[in-house]
Structure formats: structure tokens, C-alpha cells
TrEMBL record:
Pfam families per record: Imm51
Protein name per the record: Immunity protein 51 of polymorphic toxin system
InterPro entries: Imm51
Length: 115
């Protein structure tokens, strides 16, 4: 398994496995104040909830292609289609850099998605 990163995916890393690829995030500074305003800690589970909500709202075609295996200290999405993970990374980067996008996702996330 070899981690790869490119400037267009930072702060995410892509890790290729034999039959799948993982999208990983381990730094949670971006948007932390927005999470806090909604009563959440910005960590792996919280970003997973945002990712699931972004998929529901803006990219439902990714729902069957992306699975999640996050922990509190690491967001992890994985699947067989690297292009789907790249698309998810771009959606999440928009949420990280555009407060309104993150607020919209957090206003629609369910508590179950944040655990």
C-alpha cells in the first residue's frame, strides 16, 4: 500500500490497496469553529457525517461507490472507484473552505451520522 497526495487533494491522502482505494483525512483544523458552533468536535466521525450529507445533497451517484470506516482521529472513505473518492475529496474541500457549504451540511446532518 502506498500513500499518495497531490496538491488538488490536500489535506487528503489517497492510499491504494489491492482491490480498493482509501481517502484519508487526519487534520481537522479547517472548519473546526463551524463544527463547534453546531455542538460537534471536528474529527473523523464528524467529517464522515458531513461527507454522507454532502453525498445525499449534492452527489447521490456516489452513495453506491463510497463506503466509510472512520475513527475519531481519522476520516476514511474507501471504494473500488478512485474517481469517486476524488470527487468526494473535492466536495469536502469545498466544505472546508466555504463556511456556507459546511453550515448547510451540518444543519442537515443527523445525530446518527455524527457517531
Amino acid at each position: 500500500m502506498s500513500p499518495t497526495a497531490s496538491n488538488d487533494l490536500l489535506p487528503f491522502r489517497m492510499v491504494e490497496h489491492a482491490n480498493s482505494t482509501s481517502l484519508i483525512l487526519t487534520t481537522f483544523d479547517q472548519g473546526a469553529d463551524v463544527f463547534e458552533a453546531y455542538g460537534y468536535d471536528a474529527g473523523g466521525y464528524a467529517w464522515q457525517g458531513v461527507a454522507q450529507t454532502l453525498i445525499q445533497l449534492r452527489a447521490p451517484h456516489l452513495a453506491s461507490q463510497v463506503k466509510f470506516d472512520s475513527e475519531s482521529s481519522m476520516f476514511t472513505a474507501y471504494g473500488a472507484a478512485p474517481a469517486a473518492l476524488v470527487e468526494l475529496a473535492h466536495l469536502m474541500r469545498e466544505a472546508m473552505t466555504t463556511r456556507a457549504v459546511l453550515e448547510n451540511a451540518l444543519s442537515q446532518v443527523t445525530p446518527e451520522q455524527m457517531d
